[in-house]
Design a protein that fits this description.
The structure holds two protein chains of two kinds.
Chain A lengths: L24 H7 L4 E6 L11 E7 L2 E8 L7 H5 L4 H8 L7 H16 L5 H29 L3 H22 L8 E2 L2 E2 L7 H23 L3 H7 L7 H6 L5 H5 L6 H4 L20 H24 L30 H10 L1 H12 L7 E9 L2 E9 L7 E5 L1 H5 L3 H5 L4 H11 L3 H5 L1
Antiparallel strand pairs in A: 1-2, 2-3, 4-5, 6-7, 7-8
Chain B lengths: L17 H11 L4 E5 L2 E6 L4 H10 L5 E10 L2 E3 L15 E3 L3 E10 L4 E10 L4 E3 L8 H12 L2 E3 L45 H5 L1
Parallel strand pairs in B: 2-7, 8-9
Antiparallel strand pairs in B: 1-2, 3-6, 4-5, 6-7
Classes of the chains: A mainly alpha, B alpha/beta.
């Protein structure tokens, strides 16, 4: 143990400051008079869900205070979007919460559509609902997988990621990308779904219920899973409200609050589904809520597949509509020969319109909207300000991960250090969303 | 296990309409104006009456949650907005301000009655100061740190007003409109040395 003269102390004069060089733990223990200790956890730590850094104040092994330190993944997406057109914004916001990219696209697109005052075609709406609910299942699967891994269950980790990959295959077949799709655009969808879309969805709906039953068999009566989760990280209804906590955490505290019911958009009020709740308000209740939500999502997808109408997937207004009915040619490039022939050979005005739409984008009337959507982690809100130009003036994202992370402190106080891992896992923060 | 709500109803009571909400707030606090646009209610308040309005929302209008808190910077001066008016028929939009304003928007929401409204407050952008809402809504803690980080608004009474997403030693407040997106001119033609982000002097760019 030695004092490094090059390091300037930021502590007050009477504070005890120790520099540990290795193999000198005994002298550190002797020097510390009380049992309180400040320990840094992360940002590179296998159980902190990405680059989350936690500073723990410990009394013995009991947490007295937890301070999350965030910002390691900040990429300035909101600022960047102010310099891009409204359609290009989709490709930025889809990279925020990378486990629920379609929710970011959908909430942003809904905000732009509300400013434009347009309704999207019914087919686009139903396809959005199907993909959003599949995305919710995929996100909850990753939560199960990483949450299981953090508690030592590598079996659960492989199971969760295995089934999620099937859902990502579906996304890839429709949008070309496993993640960060930019498939949901202001005005509708980037392109129509493929001819085997319904078939693919149905095979997934056949597969997933069996797999989810497997997870329940594996975990529901598993003594380790029960001991680690039950009674850990309790947050009651009132504390949820005070800290703005939404999503599965609020529902596990007994509040049937779901924005799909409260502020239905995308025709969610036409679907018959229930809002699962639990009353224990602990990590195990959140596990039960998320499992039940996956089942409800599959019910919604089934109803949506039954009512999937034919028709366009992009608004008819040519001032807004990005050409979306394109076909993949034999050369692997997504050009529609009919469309190319039309703009290149038949109509000069169409060519001009296409060119202006692609290079400058459309303009959006001035105004402010706040559009909330029930993402897998809670209320995902887009506060969009437009000044009537072809770029957003300001887009602020209310990220559920960011807001929910505040509650990690009250949830882990009084628990052991090992329970901090459970608390953070049950919060399910995605650092791409927290840091934006 | 679950509930079957009718469309738009809250968990306990039906929502108040925007007119009722506006009436109740203007009755409770003086000097407040309301505006309804795009299906949303906005309450414009002065910084002095901000906390009174938020307290009214929480205690009398059953708004138990602060859903969102964000900032928008409206700098001073005439703003000529580049538009492509040939493609749309919308009216032109011009902004002219004699002083720069940082507008802070609070979205308060009631789960029990299922209504929400926006509280908008402005503060001068040369010395932005607002009272902190953390005493009423503890969730404002992170949000206010974010607005301080990005816009430089000092929230008086905040327990720990430090940067949250940008590094602690960052210079400037990046979401202000006078803060450029880039930081260096990129010129690839003449073998120009482009400094890595931590070696860039942003003070030059901002001043």
């Amino acid at each position: 143990m030695a004092v490094d003269p090059n390091v300037e102390s930021s502590l007050s004069d009477d504070a005890l400051e120790l520099f540990v060089e290795g193999a000198d733990w005994e002298s550190v223990v002797d020097a510390v008079e009380d049992d309180t200790l400040t320990v840094n956890m992360g940002p590179q730590h296998p159980s902190t869900h990405g680059v989350l850094r936690l500073v723990l104040n410990l009394d013995g092994e009991v947490v007295t205070k937890l301070t999350p330190i965030i910002g390691y993944l900040h990429t300035g997406i909101e600022k960047n979007a102010e310099y891009r057109t409204w359609v290009q914004g989709t490709t930025f916001f889809t990279r925020m919460d990378y486990l629920a990219p379609l929710y970011n696209e959908a909430a942003y697109s809904l905000g732009v559509e509300q400013l434009l005052g347009i309704d999207i075609p019914k087919r686009a709406e139903v396809v959005r609902v199907i993909l959003l609910e599949f995305n919710r299942i995929a996100s909850h699967l990753v939560w199960l997988a990483t949450g299981g891994m953090e508690l030592g269950s590598t079996t659960m980790m492989t199971f969760g990621f295995r089934e999620r990959e099937h859902i990502l295959d579906l996304f890839e077949s429709q949008s070309g990308l496993r993640m960060n799709h930019a498939y949901i655009r202001p005005g509708g969808l980037a392109q129509d779904v493929t001819s085997d879309f319904v078939e693919r969805c149905e095979s997934l709906l056949e597969l997933l219920p069996r797999k989810i039953a497997d997870y329940e068999d594996l975990l529901l009566k598993n003594p380790i899973w029960n001991d680690r989760l039950r009674g850990v990280g309790i947050i009651d209804e009132q504390t949820c409200y005070e800290y703005g906590v939404t999503g599965p955490l609020l529902r596990a505290a007994g509040v049937p609050w779901d924005l799909r019911k409260a502020e239905p958009c995308l025709g969610y009020d036409e679907y018959d589904f229930e809002v699962p709740t639990e009353t224990a308000a602990d990590s195990f209740a959140r596990f039960l809520v998320r499992i039940a939500e996956m089942r409800e999502s599959m019910g919604i997808i089934r109803q949506a597949l039954d009512r999937l109408p034919d028709g366009p997937v992009m608004v008819a207004d040519k001032r807004i509509a990005w050409p979306s009915q394109q076909a993949l040619g034999p050369d692997g490039i997504g050009n529609d020969p009919e469309y190319i022939r039309h703009i290149m050979g038949e109509s000069m005005e169409s060519l001009i319109n296409h060119f202006k739409l692609v290079t400058q984008g459309f303009t959006v009337p001035a105004g402010q909207v706040y559009v909330p959507l029930e993402s897998p982690r809670g209320e995902l809100g887009y506060a969009i300000t437009s000044t009537g130009t072809n770029k957003p003036y300001r887009v602020h994202v209310r990220e559920p991960s960011f807001v929910n992370l505040q509650a990690a402190d009250v949830m882990s106080r009084g628990h052991m250090v090992s329970d901090v891992v459970v608390v953070v896992a049950s919060l399910d923060p995605v650092m791409g969303g927290v840091d934006r | 296990m679950s509930y079957v709500p009718t469309r738009g109803h809250g968990l306990i009571d039906p929502p108040l309409t925007h007119d009722e909400l506006a009436q109740r707030i203007t009755d409770a606090v003086e000097g407040v104006t309301t505006e309804q646009a795009l299906g949303e209610l906005t309450v414009h308040v002065e910084p002095d009456s901000l906390l009174a309005v938020l307290r009214t929302c929480k205690e009398e209008l059953a708004c138990e949650m602060l859903a969102d808190l964000s900032g928008v910077h409206w700098p001073a001066g005439d703003h000529v907005i580049e538009r492509q008016s040939s493609t749309t028929g919308w009216p032109s939009y011009r902004v002219s301000r004699d002083r720069g304003v940082i507008e802070v928007l609070y979205i308060v929401r009631s789960a029990s009655r299922n209504h929400r409204l926006r509280v908008a407050v402005g503060t001068d952008d040369t010395d932005p100061v607002l009272p902190s809402a953390t005493g009423i809504y503890p969730t404002a803690n992170y949000h206010e740190r974010e607005v301080y980080d990005f816009f430089g608004v000092r929230f008086e009474g905040h327990p720990d007003l430090t940067r949250i997403l940008m590094p602690d030693d960052w210079i400037g407040h990046p979401h202000r409109k006078d803060y450029p997106l880039g930081g260096v001119d990129v010129d690839y033609k003449h073998d120009k040395y482009i400094p890595p982000p931590d070696e860039r002097d942003l003070r030059e760019v901002i001043d």
